Amino acid sequence: MSEIVVDAVGHRFGDRVVLRDVTLRITERRVGFIGANGSGKSTLARMFNGLLKPSAGTVTVDGLDVARKGAQVRRKVGFVFTDPDTQIVMPTVGEDLAFSLRRSGLSKTEVAERVQRMLDRFGLAAHADHPAHLLSGGQKQLLAIGSALIREPEVIVADEPTTLLDLRNARRVSQALNSLDQQVIVVTHDLALLDDFDRVVVLDNGTVVFDGPPGAAVDMYRQLIA
């Protein structure tokens, strides 16, 4: 497993403080982050692959500082957004998967093989030439996971990946995430998704208020919002 170290991290957007002195060491295979809207969990998750740089403190992935080695970190850590439409950039499903490999140095044959594997894995083979934006919400999110996974990262970070989905598609996406061999970090309001996780961190008002097993973390979260 990769080691993600968050050391005394603070962050602000203008005058608004979002994170306050957060310190964590993450080495487990399945880690969840929960908290109310505005608690800072999505901001922190974006630091794990260098999408955001902390205003104070440091975040490192296997010793790589995300503020200085963002490109290298992103080769290790794939990111899945809440809204898959923000990740879909190419006209068709197959082209969108291949786009993630545009700077990989792989041959056309190798790219085609990886694309086919992702299509098969996520049940999208029949849609390879279809317009990506016309997929169902669940299919789009599976495509987003495939686009992150096709680069073979060591870690997948998913920011509320089931929030925009109905129950059936939320289950499909949850099953897809649970099937990954990679280390998985999930920010979510879908508490059932966390049942089999190794560790769950609860954030409130930009600080860590609980860090432990899923059951106890969910109980703490429910107390906070009660």
TrEMBL record:
<keyword id="KW-0067">ATP-binding</keyword>
<dbReference type="InterPro" id="IPR027417">
    <property type="entry name" value="P-loop_NTPase"/>
</dbReference>
<dbReference type="InterPro" id="IPR003593">
    <property type="entry name" value="AAA+_ATPase"/>
</dbReference>
<feature type="domain" description="ABC transporter">
    <location>
        <begin position="4"/>
        <end position="226"/>
    </location>
</feature>
<dbReference type="Pfam" id="PF00005">
    <property type="entry name" value="ABC_tran"/>
</dbReference>
<keyword id="KW-0813">Transport</keyword>
<comment type="similarity">
    <text>Belongs to the ABC transporter superfamily.</text>
</comment>
<dbReference type="InterPro" id="IPR050095">
    <property type="entry name" value="ECF_ABC_transporter_ATP-bd"/>
</dbReference>
<dbReference type="InterPro" id="IPR003439">
    <property type="entry name" value="ABC_transporter-like_ATP-bd"/>
</dbReference>
<dbReference type="GO" id="GO:0043190">
    <property type="term" value="C:ATP-binding cassette (ABC) transporter complex"/>
</dbReference>
<dbReference type="GO" id="GO:0042626">
    <property type="term" value="F:ATPase-coupled transmembrane transporter activity"/>
</dbReference>
<protein>
    <submittedName>
        <fullName>ABC transporter ATPase</fullName>
    </submittedName>
</protein>
<keyword id="KW-0547">Nucleotide-binding</keyword>
<dbReference type="InterPro" id="IPR017871">
    <property type="entry name" value="ABC_transporter-like_CS"/>
</dbReference>
<dbReference type="GO" id="GO:0005524">
    <property type="term" value="F:ATP binding"/>
</dbReference>
<dbReference type="GO" id="GO:0016887">
    <property type="term" value="F:ATP hydrolysis activity"/>
</dbReference>
<dbReference type="InterPro" id="IPR015856">
    <property type="entry name" value="ABC_transpr_CbiO/EcfA_su"/>
</dbReference>
